[in-house]
Specification:
Structural class: alpha+beta
Shape: globular
Strand order of the largest sheet: 2-3-1-6
Number of strands: 6
Largest sheet: 4 strands, antiparallel
Order of helices and strands: HHHHHHHHEHHEEHEEEH
Helix content: 55-70%
Number of domains: 2
């Protein structure tokens, strides 16, 4: 039921968040590469908008392909990049199709639970037979609906009507009520479990981007003092290239676990996407900077990974952007300010490395 709840949430009234363009900064030199940059950025962002609940990492991998193109690429390098883009789009399309098919099966299963419950009771109690037959017809017709928002409202309306009928029959058919109550409870439980799972990043088990955005909106609405920490791992692509993507995934899992351990249950720790993480901290900038120092002391550093059947050690560093909400910003403006702090850190780190060379 996970994907059904994802799509129900994705069609909610809130606008699609603006994409992060930092990974698609223009390459210096050949201005003709601007067309390629625009196309790759559009592919990644439109893929996210087309299937919001599909956490495929398409945008991140397209950004990696783009960064792998030098300012003066050779024809062979461009052909290789084109082949990589085609492969990524093919894989994304296959995953999107599989999710669509799974959504359709789950919707029909939920509809079937309610319809079968109504049919069972209508056969056992003639007094409500006509009302339940009408409800059954309405429920079965839901399976043909294509608009997920309409489908959600229709399912909730049908469940409300069914609950009303059950309450009327409570004294007349206790055995039937017990059976129906069990099926409705299962239905609700599965939807609640889907909602919880839809907010979890499957790799790190931290909150995902959607959970982060909801938490930000709640914080803004409460008007309480809070701060934001953005974390971007340095040179994560090199770890993937040197040790493989499985080792890279294991590093993200370990890092996420260590990061979560440094914060209280009230703090919202999320994987923003790729090798980026975020933390929403109760309190002012002083409290957030204290947490940032704990990250640098206890989370960053040496990790052990399995690579090629052997244990290998990698050193993890990161750039952090730490800001306090100024009581006026929107969530997007706060995030943009934190992102600017983070990339100032990256620019300073890059300059230091250049000087050392």
């Amino acid at each position: 039921m996970i994907s059904l709840r994802k799509h129900l949430d994705d069609y909610w009234k809130s606008p699609v968040p603006e994409p992060d363009v930092s990974d698609f900064s223009p390459l210096p030199g050949d201005p003709s590469l601007e067309a390629l940059r625009t196309a790759l950025f559009a592919f990644g962002h439109c893929g996210q908008r087309a299937v919001p609940g599909l956490d495929s990492g398409l945008e991140t991998r397209l950004a990696e392909i783009y960064r792998g193109i030098t300012p003066s690429p050779t024809p062979d390098r461009l052909r290789d990049a084109s082949s990589q883009v085609q492969s990524e789009l093919d894989q994304w399309a296959e995953r999107a199709l599989q999710q669509h098919n799974q959504n359709e099966r789950e919707i029909r299963e939920i509809v079937g639970v309610v319809a079968r419950a109504a049919e069972t009771i209508s056969r056992k109690d003639e007094k409500y037979s006509r009302e339940f037959h009408e409800l059954t017809g309405q429920v079965r017709s839901l399976a043909d609906l294509k608009d997920v928002a309409v489908l959600r409202r229709s399912i909730l309306d049908s469940a409300t009507l069914l609950k009303s009928c059950v309450e009327k029959m409570a004294e007349e058919g206790k055995a039937a009520v017990v059976q129906l109550t069990a099926e409705v409870a299962e239905y609700r439980s599965r939807l609640e479990a889907s909602e919880r799972a839809a907010a979890i990043d499957s790799l790190t088990q931290l909150g995902n981007r959607r959970a982060f955005e909801r938490a930000i909106e709640k914080k803004l609405a409460s008007r309480d003092v809070f701060s934001l920490i953005l974390i971007d791992l340095n040179e994560f692509k090199q770890i993937n290239d040197r040790h493989g993507h499985l080792a890279g995934d294991e590093l993200l899992r370990q890092f996420g676990s260590e990061l979560r351990a440094q914060f209280s249950a009230a703090d919202i720790v999320s994987r923003w996407g790729g090798d980026e993480f975020s933390v929403i901290v109760d309190g002012d900038l002083h409290a957030a900077n204290d947490r940032a120092r704990r990250i640098e002391k206890w989370v960053l550093g040496e990790y052990k990974l399995a690579s090629g059947g052997q244990q290998t050690k990698v050193t993890v560093s990161a750039c952090l952007g730490v800001v306090e909400w100024n009581q006026r910003e929107t969530g997007a403006e706060l995030l943009a300010r934190a992102d600017r702090h983070l990339y100032s850190c990256k620019a300073a780190r890059h300059s230091t490395r250049q000087i050392r060379r």
